[in-house]
Specification:
With about 210 residues, this protein is an alpha+beta fold. It has 2 domains: about 40 residues, no CATH class; about 140 residues, Alpha-Beta Complex (Nucleoside Triphosphate Pyrophosphohydrolase). The protein is built from 4 helices and 10 strands; from the N terminus they run αβββββββαβββαα. The strands form 3 sheets. Strands 7-4-9-8 form a 4-stranded mixed β-sheet. Strands 1-2-3 form a 3-stranded antiparallel β-sheet, with no helix packed on it. Strand 2 and strand 3 form a beta hairpin. About 20% of the residues are buried.
Length: about 210
């Protein structure tokens, strides 16, 4: 006996999708300017349905690059350092801000070498991702780099007090799932890279 639901056209009908339109900025006032680190502004905006928000706050911050890097012997280079914003010691990927007008991959290569002394021959761009859908707060460019070799010693700034780590993929997965990594942008970048590596393993010819 057939399932009566399977013959009901309503059971498979897709809901109507209303096109999403951007908001309109009517006015904008900069409240705080501390470039290149951040600027804070308040905007008067109008939504497509006519509703207005007179005090919508946005935060502009510089974009940065993160690198999930695999060495030639299959280890992931990670760094651990104190982050004064959340006031925690944080396990993260090599990363750094883009210089004005700089290409994201150029920044990623530079930061990788400065923070770890590594250089990689195989680079893949995994995308650009915004940080906060309400306030903005910059965006992160994520890269997967493979076949990295030690070509130099790290060249750190005076403010960079860093512990170097070389973890196996299993150790990285355990840190990712077990709560050792607490920076959300690092969580996202590690997850993307692990997914890309798993896809490569499942489809070696692609």
């Amino acid at each position: 006996m057939s399932d009566p639901k399977s013959s009901d056209p309503k059971s498979t009908a897709k809901p109507a999708v209303t096109p999403i339109k951007p908001w309109t900025t009517i006015a904008s006032e900069e409240l705080l300017a501390r470039r290149p680190w951040l600027s804070v502004s308040v905007e008067h905006v109008r939504l497509p349905n006519g509703h207005e928000i007179p005090d919508y706050y946005k935060i502009e911050m510089p974009e940065w690059a993160q690198v999930f890097v695999l060495t030639a012997d299959g280890h992931v280079a990670m760094i651990e350092h104190y982050k004064h914003g959340p006031e925690v010691i944080s396990l993260e990927l090599p990363a750094g801000y883009l210089d004005p007008g700089e290409d994201p991959e150029t920044s990623a290569r530079r930061e990788l070498r400065e923070e770890t002394g590594l250089a990689a021959s195989d680079w893949r761009y995994l995308g650009r991702y915004f940080m906060d859908g309400n306030r903005g707060c910059g965006a992160s460019h994520i890269f997967l780099a493979q076949n990295a070799q030690q070509v130099d010693t790290p060249h750190l700034e005076a403010s960079e007090i860093i512990a170097q780590h070389r973890l196996t993929l299993d150790e990285v997965r355990a840190a990712w799932l077990g709560g050792r990594i607490t920076n959300l942008s690092t969580i996202a970048a590690v997850g993307l890279a692990l997914a890309a590596l798993a896809q490569d393993e499942a489809n070696p010819s692609t």
